[in-house]
Design a protein that fits this description.
The protein has 336 residues and is of the alpha+beta class. The protein is built from six helices and 16 strands.
């Protein structure tokens, strides 16, 4: 392993208020992070785009070499700057290589932020990326569902072509990560960190995954009607798509519901991916919704490539960290 080290000057830069690239790269979200109200905690989600460290881990699938996907140091630093700027008390991640990689990232780039509690679990994805959480409050339990069968099976055709999974039972492409957090003696949060199946043609798969998470939530509510639940992460679908709407139909509340309009258009303030789509969410149960501070949800602007770019060949702008942007919301942790 090649050890990365940070000079004192760089460490101070990471702690400072960040300036991201040129203005024309800040296409989406807010440039100034809102102040967090007194007594509130900030809950966030961020797909950090292949946060692979420099440790050569074994490839059990035979399909993916992590050493070919080490995240460039400039991008790691940019992700850290965004996290420091948002200053969430609890932040969920998608596309983290491992618990070891997340621990290295926290200890190297987020020192002093108080993220003493950490979780990252294998979610049964061949590329090795996981769902993860950093928290300033104790994490009391974690769960994943690696082999949970969802309703239905893969259809015969995929995008008009033969589906290589045809007839196989549907499973989570990447299992949700469930994390229980003890915010105070009398206040707990349960998070479902999701990273639903990406890509056109996989709408049926995303819908099945969403239904699976809804079933888990319904079971939680039956066991404890007062449980505070948030489902957050990369849904890989926009607000009007069925895989998202089914969460709302099940009683979950989108903390950014105001960004979905009838014309299927989203204001740039509320976009979460450099492709111009709103695909990341923090959804809350009806009980937790009472604690959410109205209007506090925001997306933080980080550099993006220009509209119409080809991500496979077009260069990334200065200060680029990920193709997604952090989404955060503030809440008062008192059951009401």
């Amino acid at each position: 392993m090649r050890t990365r080290w940070i000079p004192v000057a760089l460490a101070l830069t990471l702690m400072a208020t960040p300036t991201f690239g040129e203005d024309d790269t800040l296409r989406f979200g807010v440039r100034d992070v809102p102040d967090k109200p007194d007594g509130a905690i900030r809950l966030a989600t961020y797909n950090v785009l292949n946060l692979f460290d420099e440790t050569d881990d074994p490839d059990l699938s035979g399909r993916w070499d992590d050493m070919d996907n080490i995240k460039p140091e400039s991008e790691v630093e940019a992700v850290a700057r965004a996290i420091r700027a948002v200053d969430a008390d609890i932040i969920a991640f998608q596309e983290v290589e491992s618990l070891e990689a997340l621990t290295w990232f926290r200890d190297t780039y987020l020192d002093g932020m108080g993220y003493d509690h950490i979780a990252s679990r294998d979610v049964a994805y061949y590329r090795g990326v996981e769902n993860s959480v950093l928290s300033r409050f104790p994490i009391t339990s974690t769960r994943v569902w690696l082999d949970m069968e969802l309703d239905g099976e893969h259809p015969k055709l995929w995008n008009g072509r033969p589906n290589r999974y045809y007839g196989e039972p549907l499973l989570f492409r990447r299992s949700p990560l469930c994390v229980d957090i003890q915010v105070s003696d009398d206040y707990e949060l349960r998070l479902y960190v999701v990273h639903h199946k990406a890509g056109a043609g996989n709408e049926y798969w995303r819908e099945a995954e969403g239904k699976g998470v809804v079933k888990l939530i319904q079971a939680d509510r039956q066991a404890d009607p007062n449980v505070n639940i948030a489902v957050l992460g990369d849904f890989n679908a926009e607000p009007w798509e069925p895989s998202v709407r089914q969460y709302l139909q099940a009683g979950m509340i989108d903390t950014m519901a105001h960004r979905a309009v009838d014309c299927h258009d989203v204001d740039p303030l509320y976009i979460t991916h450099e492709s111009g789509r709103a695909i990341d969410y923090v959804m809350v149960s009806s009980g937790l919704c009472c604690e959410v501070i109205p209007g506090s949800a925001f997306i933080f602007s980080t550099p993006a490539r220009q509209e119409g770019h080809d991500y496979r060949v077009d260069p990334k702008p200065k200060g680029y960290g990920s193709d997604h942007y952090p989404l955060a919301v503030d809440l008062i942790p008192i059951d009401r």
